[in-house]
Design goal:
The protein is α+β, with helices and mostly antiparallel strands. Among the domains are: 47 residues; 82 residues, Gyrase A, domain 2 (2-Layer Sandwich), CATH 3.30.1360. The protein is 53% helix and 21% strand. Strands 1-2-4-3 form a 4-stranded antiparallel beta sheet. It is rod-shaped and about 155 Å long.
């Protein structure tokens, strides 16, 4: 019996193997090209970021140096004078916004018949409006009634007499000081003209 080795001439599909190897080579080449392009792109982006970071750090150092130089260059005396002038300007602005109509309406409402208002001087002190008034009253009770009426308006606080003397005709002249908070427009009294019409 003759034995034949069929494997001595094996069947190979060389075309299929070649195509598979070529496809694998193309995939590997594509991946390599993609990775190389990404590496180049990321390297360029990293270089740009490093340049921007270096520029920002240089600008920060420059700004800090300028701020330090400006701090050392400021003269304390000039700064204090400027702060004082600013406070004075704010006080003048507050005095200009003082509503005489509202104020006189409150005084008219609070003034007893035997008390006369001689002078009024509003002034801003430590951020608050203070009003100095000179009044002439017949009796101490009239002055006390005026102070109570000012308190009742809810616009005058810490009403205190400062100086007091007698006039030539025996009347009592008093200087009073009070802290004044202007009421809201809806709470302010309405001054009426003669005849009772607003």
């Amino acid at each position: 019996m003759v034995k034949v080795n069929l494997a001595s001439r094996p069947f190979y599909n060389e075309r299929l193997v070649t195509m598979a190897l070529a496809a694998l080579a193309l995939v590997a080449l594509g991946l390599t090209t993609f990775n190389a392009a990404e590496l180049v792109s990321l390297s360029a982006q990293r270089a740009k970021d490093q340049t921007r970071i270096a520029r920002d750090e240089a600008a920060t150092r420059s700004a800090e140096a300028d701020a330090t130089a400006a701090t050392h260059a400021v003269d304390r005396a000039v700064l204090n004078a400027l702060a004082l002038e600013t406070r004075e300007a704010n006080a003048l602005i507050s005095e200009r916004t003082f509503s005489w109509t509202t104020f006189l309406g409150l005084i008219e409402k609070a003034l007893p018949p035997d008390v006369h208002l001689v002078s009024v001087a509003p002034r801003v002190d430590t951020g608050q409006m203070w009003v100095t008034m000179v009044i002439i009253a017949k009796r101490p009770e009239d002055q006390a009634a005026f102070m109570d009426a000012l308190d009742a308006t809810k616009a005058f606080f810490e009403v205190q007499p400062r100086d007091e003397d007698l006039t030539e005709d025996g009347m009592r002249r008093s200087t009073m000081r009070a802290r004044y908070v202007e009421p809201a427009p809806s709470e302010a009294p309405v001054r009426t003209a003669k005849g009772g019409r607003p």
